[in-house]
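Blinded run. Sample ID left blank on purpose so nobody reads anything into the name before looking at the predicted structure. Input follows.
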Amino acid sequence: MSSDAVVENEWAQRVLGAARIEDGQLTLPDDQLAELGRQIHESPDPSVPAAALVALATRLKEIPGARPVTNQVVALAAIALGDEPLNRVLNIALYGGG
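Blinded prediction complete.
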């Protein structure tokens, strides 16, 4: 297994391990979403989780009932890629400020 595949599997396990089914939809609770965002912020190279999260979102979009978690995974990938508005929201959620 390539190192990229290992990283993709690690992030898939993090996301899916934290996901819950609510009203028939797969979703990440807010605290788990923030925790994954924190892990991205602390990553030495955010492009690594970004690539893994894009790959995961691509797979998730084909699963019925996974739209909420797919959207959350895309948002996490955008955070990893430096999206300023999403990073501001994450900073407020994690640290109480921007």
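Unblinding after everyone has recorded impressions. The chain has five helices and two strands.
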